[in-house]
Amino acid sequence: MTLAYLTTPLLGIVDTAVVGQFGDAALLGGLAAGSLVFDVVFTTFNFLRSGTTGLVAQAFGRGDALEEQAVLWRAVLIAVVAGVILAALSPLFAIGGQWFMGAEPRVSAAMSVYIRIRLLAAPFSLINYAILGYVLGRGEGGLGLMLQAVLNGINIALCFLLGLKLGWGVAGVAWATVTGEFLAMLLGLAIVLSRFRRLERPSRRRILDLPAYRHMLSLNRDIMIRSFSLLAAFALFTRQGAQFGTVTLAANAVLMNFFLIAGYFLDGFATAAEQLAGRAIGARAPAPFRQAVRLTLIWGFGLAGVATLVLLTAGAGLVALVTTSREVRAVADSYLPWAAFTALSGVLAFQMDGVFIGATWSRDMRNMMLLSFLAFSAALITLAPAFGNSGLWASLHVFLLVRGLSLLTMLRLRVRTAFS
Length: 420
Description:
Belongs to the multi antimicrobial extrusion (MATE) (TC 2.A.66.1) family. The chain has 420 residues and is an all-alpha fold. The chain is built from 18 helices and no strands.
């Protein structure tokens, strides 16, 4: 799953690099802002991946194969309805994004193009969330890798073709995403349908069970608040960068891709924690639960150190590869160390998220995220005016550290009662 997740930030790097070849900071800023709005919208439905993983893992731990299938189909039904609504409302999201960012006109225009096209993929993207959640809940990392590699591989190839070779720019990057999501959805559905034909199927009544939907949506409420708080922090980070000027906005966009690479690099172990913790909770097995937490922490911190060293030594070369703008390169290079150390400051938060998602302790995760967002906001108000963009990056580190430490504190309290 580490390999699978690395394809996602690689796609972000390719998107940024394709648009960066035009040498226009406004286009880079528009892509960053458009991606942020898209992420904010889709954060509402992140439970279709993370919530499905936790519920399927617990059903797997209980040996309830029918419930595993039922969880997937409930998530798919929600995905279809929500995706169609999101695609229809894409013009409104574009207008809202322009209002929130308050960036210069050319940045706003590029952002609007990206949002209006990319949201057409909403039904396909949400179904892919549900399928990936099912696969990860069963601990099938190899299949998850294949699905993510197909999705992002098609997307990357089309980014080069449409965005760079045909010169479509931001629009080409967005259309590449729509096509990749659609083709990956077809493949994922074909795989699960062929598997289910050989198994006993859950009844329609079980799939449409209202208490089960209420439980899934209650998870959604907490995960949604948690995820919105996370995206709100990133939104404020991006918006504050825009206030420092278009070049700083573009440089931060490049560096945020490095932060995401480090984050997704570590998310493989967070996903392992989701599946193993969820299975242990379902089977009521405390020893495997503690072992999963311990091992994912050790490996997570080890890989975080590696990621930080790689970014510190090779980051300047990656910046030069991503953008041809000398101004953007110069600013990005000066703030590179801030981005490099996000791997170490964020690893505990990523890994604890995995444990809490797998255990479906969504309320604690929500509360600790709100606490972390308050700490981030206080740091932003204090540090950004005093230290400029360095203060902005310092605030992000405060956010990551508070998230990890607060969840670790709650974990110790939870473990005492979870298996009693």
